[in-house]
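Re: that chain you flagged

S.,

Sorry for the slow reply, it's been a week of failed gels. I finally had a moment to sit down with the sequence you sent. For the record, here it is as I used it:
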Amino acid sequence: MNASDLVNAAKCGDEAAAVSLIEEYYGRIYSFLRRLTGSEEDAADLTQKAFSSVWRMLPSLAKPGSVASWIHSIAYHTYVDWRRAHRVPEERSDAWWQAVPTGDLTPDEQAARTDLASRVYSAVDQLESDLKNTVHLHYYQGLTLQETADAMGVASSTVKYRLRQALTALQSRVGADQPHTKPSDNWR
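Prediction finished late last night. Pasting the structure tokens below so you have them in one place:
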């Protein structure tokens, strides 16, 4: 069953479909919220709250066209409400960034990738909130431009504009951190 079929079946009371829907999206939503909160515990709590809202709002979902953007929208708004209520700062420690898991690479490749990822993630976290959240939804969660727009409640042109702004800011921030070499050094 695809996600739309799962939603329709869950709306009709099929508990197995509801469980399958949660299983399909739980990991993605948890990862999204973990990246935003910087805390496994907060992400777990917010993921539970988000899926509680998904379950409560499921009967009112008119067209389950893009289930992913609908669920991400609920998770995003759960996060925004949580931040407002708790006045949570958005900074993350270097230790948190170093704990981000990497793939099976050689130690030097892993160190280089971890260093670059740390700089990029840190630079993303320094973006203003709207830009940062747009980057998280589109690039980290893999939502399309339209799904990102739907999740954030803005026009897709706004998402495109924010992504251009974010990429320009990230290129200048991360690029400024890169060691400058002569072009001939890269060909040896």
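What I noticed first: The mean pLDDT is 80.

Talk soon,
D.
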